[in-house]
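Repro:
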Amino acid sequence: MKKLNVKALVSIGMLSSLSYILMLLNFPLPPFPQFLMIDFSDVPALIAAIIFGPVAGILVELLKNILDYFMTGSATGVPVGHFANFIAGILFVLPTYYVYQKLKTTKGMTIALVVGSVTMAVLMSVLNYFVILPAYTFFLNMPAMSGAETRTLIVTGILPFNLIKGAFIAVIFMLLFTRMNTWIMKQSTYKSA
């Protein structure tokens, strides 16, 4: 793995700041629970991953969530939601990056975004069942939901929400990618030279 140069570090910092700002511009979708919010903060992380590699995408996701935690805090006192957002971002960005590296076309990026969206939705459903929802109930000192209630929430709320969120992010990213593809490829070539 190559070390990140100064240009990459500055770019990661700028993309992290942009990602944090996009994270603040979140909004709920009416049929889903109020705590599920859509934002487009994974787009800069995906750009960072494509240009500078997967570590850069992870760093953008990490820095965005650290900034948001220190600026807005957390209802639980611990960053459970930020941890969930970080993991969801990684589960979207990394599969998208690796599939795109194999296909390297616009159609390949579309396939990669679908794979990233499905991967994020499915794995976040599993993590919500076993880790995230139990952590919320523990730190908020709420009564735990039954297994049936948890499964219902995941199947009717969290899974479809993450699929829709992935689709929204994919559409926004593809609009940018089709316009910026030449520049992104030039930056990626420059990075590897």
